[in-house]
Amino acid sequence: xxxxxxxxxxxxxxxxxxxxxxxxxxxxxxxxxxxxxxxxxxxxxxxxxxxxxxxxxxxxxxxxxxxxxxxxxxxxxxxxxxxxxxxxxxxxxxxxxxxxxxxxxxxxxxxxxxxxxxxxxxxxxxxxxxxxxxxxxxxxxxxxxxxxxxxxxxxxxxxxxxxxxxxxxxxxxxxxxxxxxxx
Amino acid sequence: xxxxxxxxxxxxxxxxxxxxxxxxxxxxxxxxxxxxxxxxxxxxxxxxxxxxxxxxxxxxxxxxxxxxxxxxxxxxxxxxxxxxxxxxxxxxxxxxxxxxxxxxxxxxxxxxxxxxxxxxxxxxxxxxxxxxxxxxxxxxxxxxxxxxxxxxxxxxxxxxxxxxxxxxxxxxxxxxxxxxxxx
Lengths: 183, 183
Description:
Two copies of one chain form a homodimer.
Chain A: H1 11-22, E1 29-40, E2 43-53, E3 56-68, H2 83-105, E4 110-122, H3 124-127, E5 139-148, H4 152-165, H5 167-173, E6 177-182
Antiparallel strand pairs in A: 1-2, 2-3, 4-5
Helix pairs in contact in A: 2-4, 2-5
């Protein structure tokens, strides 16, 4: 390479972190947190600010607040996107972060990375109209459009490697134990 | 009941929709969509506005835009919450919407519904530090605190029924097929 790719990802720091955490697994144990408050109807607001990691309490720079609701065609107030749409936000952004990180590591300069995500959902499940229909997505499709100093094959390899390491891709394609309790 | 519970959920409309969709499964096929744009580093922005359902194109009242990034301790810019935290936003809001809906259907007046969600995450997986560690959450715990005109047993039953019908709970606890392609 005659020019150095700069996608704004500090890959050196990530590679160093990987080496450090190999010998310090306890520091790699993170806890991400959200706190939710019912507003009215099916509208709620969810706050995120602090989390635990690297052995101590951590904070995002600012507190983020997200509204979730159902659309008007469900006789609701549409004061925010639906809960299941938040999964698409997480999936798209996780895979995009991965593409940028892998590209940086491989010395590939990105110019633009866009994606569309589509989640197919048969709402008879959650409505209880048909017990054979699952509540969640039937399937999800992500389509990337990437402009980079790389061949199509190299771009496809970026996306494949991002998928392989994606936290959200794993969380959606494999089961996770979720416990729900009343305090 | 001498007073009528009002949690702001139009349960009658939902019950009618359930009956209508039993005989019109094609109308129940929804497609939720997100479009993502890489900003810089691992920062991306994701837009949500339109979706397909009830046989035609639909729109949220307003377009919503969400930023995702990694925190400063990952040598990133923290211009938004992390992608995996968006899954917690979806989970908390989906279960909360369910609690409100089920309470309305059962004639239970809610006064407040709060929840905290904690997702345990060993980041060695996504960093590639240990191939035996998964990329996503190890497990997720949701804890509700609910003030309502109901016994503890009734409140626990509300939460259990919400979980049973939750789209996001299903999406996280059961596998979904996700395909990722380059256009």
